Automatic annotation (TrEMBL):
The lineage of its organism: unclassified sequences, metagenomes, ecological metagenomes. The keyword Ribonucleoprotein does not apply. Signal peptide: none annotated. Gene3D superfamilies: Topoisomerase II, domain 5. Pfam families: DNA_topoisoIV. This is Topo IIA-type catalytic domain-containing protein.
Length: 88
């Protein structure tokens, strides 16, 4: 039950899972904002895996893509460049 509460369910305060929070923290640490140039997804995923999320890279990629899709979340948190999935 502890794993479900701490990892699988989004937090009540902001609606983010820990993997989403880790991605946003790393992106802030890399200086990524709305006005900065784009960086490759592999750079962000590598930083997250190396420092905060020692599991597979697929979950980090999936979480980052989900944050970039306007049909997955209410507010888009990541501005994805290129193919981040479409509804089609």
């Amino acid at each position: 039950m502890s794993v479900i509460i701490s990892r699988a369910l989004p937090d009540v305060r902001d609606g983010l899972k820990p993997v989403h929070r880790r991605i946003l923290y790393v992106m802030d640490g890399l200086g990524l904002s709305h006005a900065s140039p784009y960086k490759k997804s592999a750079r962000i995923v590598g930083e997250v895996l190396g420092k905060y999320h020692p599991h597979g890279d697929t979950s980090v990629y999936d979480a980052m893509v989900r944050m970039a899709q306007d049909f997955s979340m209410r507010y888009v948190l990541v501005d994805g460049q290129g193919n981040f999935g479409s509804m089609d």
